[in-house]
């Protein structure tokens, strides 16, 4: 099968499948164009559906083992795509990446202790800290030339000096679209080592990196003894987030073992038959689809830039170096996210409110361009309509 424009242009009808993005009537009305939840409106790699169908055809779904092959498929993929060489012992299976963030916080801090995050950031980062009674230390990213965000290392160091025990990092960064460079990541590591801060890096968006940027896995920069864990999953990459399967990866087995104990004590279980089946198929047979997808998303990003220039010339989009999510400053049109959302709902288009990523997101919206080009164009047209109406 060809994973060309025609394949991705066709999209897939998701209405009535109980999917959050299209069917959540608390957020969007019937007929609205959804550009919000971070999954994609494309058929996934056929090898995944075929593997699930084959397994489903055997009508007994009893307790299932996580096998060496499951782990080996993940590790081989990681080596092929990212040059990372890890042993099976470096892997801890998890149901979700957010589970990993929460377990990391619970495992390596006590209630009330301080956890650093670079903000604005994907909402569950803050929730992982606050739901567990810890204190989130927000280190705001600075918006520099061309609306590109950067880490304020002085403020990060100040935060570490204030007694931070753990840092949760998003790499690449949702929502501001940064693909952190080797130099930036190395600077973070210098500081975490200096202040004894344990680092958990959510790398779920690793595959969505646009040339000339290159994804730098945090574990390609670590040294023996570093207290760093990477969280990964096929869920974003292959659009199978509803199945739920993720990995914590670290050569630091002391850290991994502690995390495993916390996971087991909390009663977190995994090993869903279909998640394992789908994920193995994704790692082993999904790459042609993924390459086609990246070509399509690259074109969509160019299209989005053109559409914004034409229809919403005062929107400021930060450079999307990575992810399929565009971070839009719409404050020239309307300063409040609540009002922006209201106007968009009225016009039949749904984006994610900037404040979901923290107070720094006021006046911003996040737009998901992981959809057929026609859907993207219709969505932007409706945004224009919404913002040009008084
Ligand atoms: C940065 C980031 N981490 C984690 C997740 C969710 O991952 P999971 O469903 O495996 O918890 C998302 C989903 O949008 C995300 O953007």
Could you explain how this protein is built, in words?
There is one protein chain. 40% of the residues lie in helices and 15% in strands. The protein has 390 residues and is of the alpha/beta class. The chain has 2 domains: 5-42 and 287-388, Aspartate Aminotransferase, domain 1 (Alpha-Beta Complex), CATH 3.90.1150.10; 54-285, Aspartate Aminotransferase, domain 2, CATH 3.40.640. The protein has a 7-stranded mixed β-sheet, sandwiched between helices. α3 runs antiparallel to α10 (273-285), α4 packs parallel to α10 (273-285) and α5 runs parallel beside α6. The longest helix has 25 residues, at 287-311. The site of pyridoxal-5'-phosphate has 13 residues, from α5.
Mean pLDDT across all amino acids: 97
Report the structural category.
Answer: alpha/beta
Strand residue percentage: 15-25%
Helix content range: 40-55%
Q: In which order are the strands of the major sheet placed?
A: 2-10-9-8-7-3-4
Instruction: Supply the CATH class of the largest domain.
Output: Alpha Beta
Q: Low-confidence runs (pLDDT<50, min 5 residues)?
A: none
> Which kinds of small molecule does this entry bind, naming each only once?
pyridoxal-5'-phosphate
CATH superfamily of the largest domain: Type I PLP-dependent aspartate aminotransferase-like (Major domain)
C-alpha Rg, in Å?
Answer: 21 Å
Shape: globular
Distance between the termini: 48 Å
What is the name of the CATH topology of the largest domain? Answer: Aspartate Aminotransferase, domain 2
């Amino acid at each position: 099968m060809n994973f060309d424009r025609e394949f991705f242009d066709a999209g897939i009808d998701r209405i009535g499948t109980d999917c959050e993005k299209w069917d959540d009537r608390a957020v969007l009305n019937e007929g609205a164009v959804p550009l919000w939840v971070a999954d994609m409106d494309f058929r996934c790699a056929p090898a995944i559906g075929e593997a699930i169908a084959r397994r489903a055809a055997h009508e007994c779904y009893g307790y299932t083992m996580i096998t060496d092959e499951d782990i080996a498929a993940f590790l081989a993929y990681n080596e092929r795509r990212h040059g990372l060489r890890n042993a099976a012992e470096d892997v801890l299976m998890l149901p979700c990446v957010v589970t990993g963030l929460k377990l990391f916080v619970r495992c390596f801090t006590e209630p009330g202790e301080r956890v650093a995050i670079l903000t604005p950031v994907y909402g569950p980062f803050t929730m992982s800290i606050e739901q567990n009674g810890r204190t989130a230390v927000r280190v705001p990213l600075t918006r520099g030339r061309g609306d590109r965000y950067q880490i304020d290392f002085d403020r990060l160091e100040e935060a570490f000096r204030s007694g931070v025990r753990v840092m949760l990092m998003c790499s690449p960064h949702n929502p501001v679209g940064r693909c952190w460079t080797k130099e930036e990541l190395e600077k973070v590591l210098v500081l975490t080592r200096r202040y004894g801060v344990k680092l958990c890096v959510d790398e779920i968006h690793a595959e969505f990196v646009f040339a000339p940027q290159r994804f730098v896995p945090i574990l390609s920069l670590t040294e023996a003894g570093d207290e760093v864990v990477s969280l990964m999953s096929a869920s974003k990459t292959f659009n199978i987030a509803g199945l739920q399967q993720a990995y914590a990866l670290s050569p630091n087995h002391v850290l991994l073992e502690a995390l495993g104990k916390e996971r087991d004590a909390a009663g977190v279980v995994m090993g869903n038959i279909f998640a394992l089946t789908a994920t193995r198929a994704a790692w082993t047979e999904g790459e042609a689809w993924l390459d086609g997808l990246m070509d399509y998303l690259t074109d969509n990003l160019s299209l989005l830039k053109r559409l914004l220039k034409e229809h919403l010339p005062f929107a400021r989009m930060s450079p999307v170096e990575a992810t399929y999510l565009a971070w839009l400053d719409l404050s020239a049109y309307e300063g409040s996210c609540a009002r922006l959302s209201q106007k968009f709902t009225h016009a039949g288009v749904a984006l994610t409110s900037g404040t979901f990523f923290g107070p720094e997101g006021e006046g911003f919206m996040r737009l998901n361009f992981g959809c057929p080009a026609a859907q993207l164009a219709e969505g932007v047209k409706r945004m224009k309509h919404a913002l040009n109406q008084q």
